[in-house]
Design the sequence.
């Protein structure tokens, strides 16, 4: 068995969801996909371990599911859009998840995002042609 | 004959959906972002399109990883939104135009774009957020919606170049429809953002601006980039920008810029809006 290498493999802190991951984490993502239904989200909350066993996930994936370990789940093959189906309804925003990935507080993570908008209006004026009210 | 009235680019992130639902448009965080859509809404009202083709990616509502079509076209009379597990409110359903869709399918497959046809297709935030951005102020959706889904979730993705070429073919498909229909195309998603991993939170304003200029004036610049190159700059989710090229490919080589709007940050993303028209 030989998995193809890709240019994106060398981008740090980045988990590109490709065939290799999709194949190895199929059960985990199928579990996360089931959260499109509220009844499944509730069943998971009632007994996470039993729910995980139904989908045949690995022991490591099961432990990460029980512990809300988002970075762990990502490393174990969760697709970010599917992971959101677990995180968002339970009160974790994408900023909370981003902060968890970087091991900083959500406020720090949000502040870093906000900094990206510094000097925006001046920048757009210099560039020219942008709407500004 | 059907004709294209123009193309629009827009973000489609769920945070925008929630802001609209919670009526936060005029709060300080959101005001500048939403106000920049007013000229788009006025342009749409003036052009009065019959059909909106929405180029978007499904995020795991209609398609699971058991079957991932590279390009998928809605060919139904109706499309429904549903719970996608993200806490978004479910929006009212959309009317489609099956005859028009099947014409597109015949033409595109005839031009060797072997896409997947869908007679049942749930539409997620990628489709509904742009529709709501444009027309939530009206009691009914004023257009028939045609979902055109591009796989940007599970790699390998179609290349940026392929997306541009799909746009070229889409133009031929639209213009060969015998009925008089006015068609607008929405290229959705982007701009730079990465939700996942230790690199989460990247936004590259310089790259976003170069992408905006490229889509207006020189789409080849973006179209010639590899998926890895785009991810490196725009992030794993920012790669959605390739869907703008489907819209752009459906317009002429030279276009008129009607409106250009950029705001950052919106949630984790840079948000770019373009309205483009073919020259008169």
Sequence:
């Amino acid at each position: 068995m030989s998995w193809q290498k890709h240019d994106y493999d060398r981008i740090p802190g980045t988990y590109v969801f490709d065939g290799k991951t999709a194949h190895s984490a199929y059960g985990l993502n199928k579990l996360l996909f089931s959260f499109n239904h509220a009844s499944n989200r509730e069943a998971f909350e009632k007994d996470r371990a039993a729910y995980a066993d139904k989908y045949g996930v690995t022991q490591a994936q099961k432990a990460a599911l029980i512990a809300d370990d988002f970075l762990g789940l990502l490393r174990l093959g969760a697709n970010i859009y599917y992971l959101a189906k677990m995180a968002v309804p339970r009160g974790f925003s994408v900023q909370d998840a981003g902060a968890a990935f970087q091991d900083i507080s959500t406020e720090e993570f949000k502040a870093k995002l906000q900094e990206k908008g510094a000097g925006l209006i001046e920048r757009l004026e210099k560039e020219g042609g942008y709407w500004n009210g | 004959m059907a004709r294209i009235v123009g193309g629009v680019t827009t973000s489609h992130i769920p945070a925008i959906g929630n802001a609209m639902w919670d009526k936060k448009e005029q709060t300080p965080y959101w005001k500048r972002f939403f106000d920049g859509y007013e000229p788009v809404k006025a342009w749409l009202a003036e052009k009065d399109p019959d059909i909106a083709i929405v180029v978007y990616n499904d995020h795991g509502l209609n398609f699971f990883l058991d079957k991932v079509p590279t390009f998928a076209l809605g060919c139904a009379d109706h499309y429904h939104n549903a719970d996608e597990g993200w806490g978004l409110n479910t929006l009212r359903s959309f009317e489609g135009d099956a005859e028009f869709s099947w014409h597109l399918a015949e033409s595109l497959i005839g031009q060797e774009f072997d896409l997947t046809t869908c007679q049942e297709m749930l539409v997620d935030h990628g489709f509904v957020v742009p529709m709501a951005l444009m027309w939530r102020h009206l009691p009914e959706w004023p257009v028939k919606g045609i979902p055109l889904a591009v796989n940007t979730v599970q790699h390998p993705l179609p290349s940026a170049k392929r997306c541009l070429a799909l746009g070229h073919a889409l133009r031929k498909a639209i213009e060969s429809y015998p009925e008089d229909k006015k068609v607008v195309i929405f290229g959705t998603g982007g701009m730079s953002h990465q939700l996942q991993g230790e690199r989460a939170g990247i936004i590259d304003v310089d790259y976003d601006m170069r992408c905006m200029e490229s889509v207006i004036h020189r789409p080849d610049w973006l179209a010639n980039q590899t998926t890895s190159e785009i991810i490196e700059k725009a992030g794993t989710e920012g790669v959605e920008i390739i869907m703008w090229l489907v819209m752009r490919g459906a317009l002429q080589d030279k276009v008129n810029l009607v409106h250009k709007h950029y705001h950052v940050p919106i949630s984790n993303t840079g948000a770019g809006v373009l309205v483009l028209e073919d020259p008169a």
Observations:
- Chain B touches chain A through 52 residues (CB under 8 Å).
- The longest strand of chain B covers residues 256-266.
